[in-house]
Amino acid sequence: MAKSLLCSSTLNPFFSSTISSSTSSKKNQIAYSGNSKNQTSSLLCNRRDLSLGFMSSFLAIGLVGNDRRSRDANAAILEADDDEELMEKVKQDRKKRIERQAVLNSAVKEKGYLQDLVYNLSKVGQAIENNDLPAAGLVLGKGVDTEWVKTANLAFTKLSTSPEENTEVETFNSSLASLITSVNKNDIESSKLAFVSSAGAFEKWTALTGLLGQLKGI
Q1: Which residue range or ranges hold the Maintenance of Photosystem II under High light 2 C-terminal domain (predicted)?
Q2: Which of 97, 173, 190, 214 is a good FRET partner for 79, with 20 to 30 A between their CA atoms?
């Protein structure tokens, strides 16, 4: 009986220590396991966030690249349209020049009328420069119905094709009428001004029509 009690008293502390140690070990294992799971979960979250960050960056770069390519493509289309419009305008201008030159080449009689105008205006200019208004009056006649003035207007009518050209014709006729009036009034200063205005309008008209340089004396 004593041996039994001894054994029991001796073994109980051993079992208590063993159980306590085992329980402590299990608790440590559970705690370690919990910590390990938390660390693993944290790593997985970090990896997922990093992956999402990379995906967002790639997506943003892709969108920016697509937008830039879209703008470049639109700019190229607009540039091509501008080039086509420019080429079409060049073609139309060239066509008009060819047509105008064909008209001028065939207008032999009209260019003769204009050559008479140049000749008579030169004589009027020389007379005014010499303060010889009577000589200028003889060339100009009594009005715009003078023959060389009428034939010149026939040429103006046939060869003028733009509003700018018609404007210069109107300026010429108005200045010529003032010149005739000033010469008949023996007003030298007004005659000089009117002559410069009429000659300037005629020169501008020849430049607009392409006749500048084709008539002698201009």
Answers
A1: 113-218
A2: 97
Least confident of 74-83, 137-146, 199-208: 74-83
* Domain range 84-209, CATH architecture: Up-down Bundle (1.20)
Interval 181-210 mean pLDDT:
96
Residue 1's alpha-carbon distances to 8, 12, 73, in angstroms, are 10, 16, 105
